[in-house]
Amino acid sequence: MGALSGEGEVPVSDLQTRPEAVACGGRDDVAGRPVRELLKPRVMSLGAGTEVRRLLPTLGRRMVGAWCFVDNYGPDDIASEPGMQVPPHPHMGLQTVSWLHAGEVLHRDSLGSLQTVRPRQLGLMTSGRAISHSEESPREHGRILHGAQLWVALPDEARHTDPSWEFHADLPVVTGPGFKGTVLLGELDGATSPGRAFTPIVGADIEVADGADVRLPLEPDFEYAVLTMRGRTVVDDVPLDPGSMLYLGCGRRELPVRADGGGSLMLLGGEPFEERLVMWWNFVGRTGEEIDRARADWMDGDRFGTVHGYDGDRTPAPALPDLPLKPRGRVR
To answer: Which terminus of the chain is more solvent-facing, meaning fewer CB atoms within 10 Å of its CB: N or C?
Structure first.
């Protein structure tokens, strides 16, 4: 996966032409105490005035729990544009989470799935050993596109499982003084998402009322980060503009949040991911040999299946880097 170099082409998968390997995982560098670490996004232009903000992995941090990839895009006016156009491409060793605040995304995959995902609906794809998919804005689409694409690393015992696609239009909601939270993955304050999770994890979309001082309940054994989606939020006294992400470490039982004028954020967390990983392009593995084999299988074999119905060619795999791909620690 080329999260640290090269030119990005789309906001929802890593289709760069010169990706670098990213080594991540392991608990050595996890902050075991509360911290406030602002993660600087890498901004990539997609043309036609569209940009994507890559927040994980970055030069400062590679994972938050099992969350290993976060792209934030929009809100963008695509009324006169084709919008999202992501050709068929492969995945292994991870789950993809599609989350929208505005717009629609049409998902196709090599299992034969065909589903339009809309705001506050969960599109969850488990790649397991191998899958391929495409994502695109429907021909007739709304004016605004705004959302996030996230990946979850699969633990060793699950990463060779059969691939699957889940769609959940109705998700559990938690409420408290001044906030409303939609649980898209894992559990928050007793509410559990129907999406299948393979590690202790949480992903929630939190709406904060104007002027409210909110206290979000947290698990002290989890590490957390927040991504501001709308409005200017203040998280643990740190101001965050839309598209900003704050890493919070572990050891918290609650998180103070406010948003003058109202706002929303994504709360991402989970138990620190103990295994060490190699991420390259759209693959998550444990060794460079696994990545090399996956690339060859995508180019030459049928392991990843075929996506039917997309009007265009599939994405060729970029060349592997010259240096060996090795798993190392969680931060650069």
So the answer is: C
- Band (pLDDT 50/70/90 cuts) for residue 102 is very high
Q: Would you say domain 22-270 falls under CATH 2.60.120.10?
A: yes
**How far, in Å, CA of 39 to CA of 294, rounded?**
30
Instruction: Give the number of residues written for the chain.
Output: 332
Domain boundaries, the chain: 22-270
Q: What is the pLDDT of residue 5?
A: 26
Does the annotation place 135 within a ligand binding site? yes
The pTM for the full model equals 0.89
Mean pLDDT of the region 291-310 = 95
With contact defined as beta carbons under 8 Å apart, do 317 and 295 qualify?
yes
Amino acid at the residue 212: A
The structure tokens listed for 167 are 């769609």
The per-residue pLDDT for 22 is 54
141 is in an annotated binding site: no
Report d(CA 217, CA 122) in Å as an integer.
22
Tokens of 295: 């690339």
- How many Cβ atoms sit within 10 Å of the Cβ of residue 178? 18
User: How is residue 204 written in tokens?
Assistant: 């929630």
Q: Render 139-185 in DSSP notation, one character per residue.
A: SS--SEEEEEEEEEEPPTTTTTSPPEEEEES---EEEETTEEEEEEE
Weakest-pLDDT range from 34-48, 143-157, 200-214, 276-290: 34-48
On the CB side of 210, CA atoms within 13 Å amount to 1
Average pLDDT, the chain: 89
pLDDT at 328: 55
> What is the rounded CA–CA span in Å between residue 205 and residue 173?
9
In the predicted structure, residue 104 carries a pLDDT above the cut 60: yes
CA–CA separation, 245 vs 233, rounded Å? 11
Could you tell me if residue 81 is left (phi over 0), alpha (psi between -120 and 50 degrees) or otherwise beta? Answer: beta
The 10 Å Cβ neighbour count of residue 113 is: 18
User: Widest CA span of the chain, in angstroms?
Assistant: 57
Residues 80, 37: Cα–Cα separation, whole Å: 38
107 labelled binding-site residue: no
